[in-house]
Amino acid sequence: MKFEYYGHACFMIDTGKEKLLFDPFIQHNPLANVISTEDIDPDYIFISHAHDDHIADIEFFTKKSSTQVICNFEIMNWLQKKGLNNFQPLNIGGKRNFSFGTVRMTQAIHSSSFSDGSYGGTAAGFVLEINDKVIFYTGDTALYSDLKLIADFHPIDWVLLPIGGVFTMDASDACKAAQLLKCNQVIGLHFDTFEAIKIDKIKAIQLFKTQQLNLHIPTIKQTIIL
Ligand code: NI
Ligand code: MN
């Protein structure tokens, strides 16, 4: 399986058969303008919550009629009004089977409203069980102790955590999150895009090392084999 980073909290997981795109924010992210979006052709799109930095490019990537959107009920309703119609809705705690494996939607301690102010439901994360691997994208969230419970149900191989702070957990809280999850392979997201979330990457990686954890801080277009 392959992870490819598109900047901010946007990435692709290529299972070998299907392409899963998360939180599309590329054309609206000036830091990601090296990416040619025409070449990105997802089979599924996951939306963690309604904030613009996670959903701004959704319409561009749903041009192909077979692309399925995995999100909560409120986001589905809002996008249906924009003419999108291929949804696989879930809500917090729910699990669902797909062609690539199973997905559980988890809570995220964060807010969720659309750019027009309308309600986006509860912010979420996703636990993915694909090809005998468990990958957990927490979404934008604060640190919370139930991460421990999630890891009891799903032994996590890779976790994707926000590390930028201010709007989400920072690298130090993310280090604690990885410990609660008993997961030593961490990919950091949601950093550097805005002035307020610029981070010291070397310091963050060193902090994880003191706990025998590997923090990967990807550069745009970088791939990581999961
Ligand atoms: Ni957010
Ligand atoms: Mn965000």
Which fold name fills CATH's third level, the topology? Metallo-beta-lactamase, Chain A
Bound molecules: nickel (II) ion, manganese (II) ion
Please state the CA-atom Rg, rounded to the nearest Å: 16 Å
Biggest sheet descriptor: 7 strands, mixed
Strand order of the largest sheet: 6-7-8-9-10-11-12
Average of per-residue pLDDT values: 97
Helix content: 10-25%
Extended strand count: 13
CATH architectural arrangement: 4-Layer Sandwich
Low-pLDDT runs of 5+ residues are: none
User: How far apart lie the N and C ends?
Assistant: 5 Å
N-to-C SSE string, H for helix and E for strand = EEEEHHEHEEEEHEHEHEE
* Number of individual domains: 1
Strand portion: 25-35%
Structural class: alpha/beta
CATH class type: Alpha Beta
| CATH homolog superfamily | Ribonuclease Z/Hydroxyacylglutathione hydrolase-like
Number of helices: 6
Shape: globular
Quickly describe the structure.
The chain is about 20% helix and about 25% strand.
Descriptive report:
The chain has one domain (2-225): Ribonuclease Z/Hydroxyacylglutathione hydrolase-like (Metallo-beta-lactamase, Chain A). The N and C termini lie close together (5 Å). The mean pLDDT is 97. The protein has 226 residues and is an alpha/beta fold. A seven-stranded mixed beta sheet has the order 6-7-8-9-10-11-12. A six-stranded mixed beta sheet has the order 5-4-3-2-1-13, with no helix packed on it. The longest helix is centred in the last third of the chain and has 10 residues, at 171-180. The chain is globular, with a radius of gyration of 16 Å. The chain has six helices and 13 strands. Bound molecules: nickel (II) ion and manganese (II) ion (MN). Manganese (II) ion binds at residues 9, 51, 53-54, 140, 167, 190.
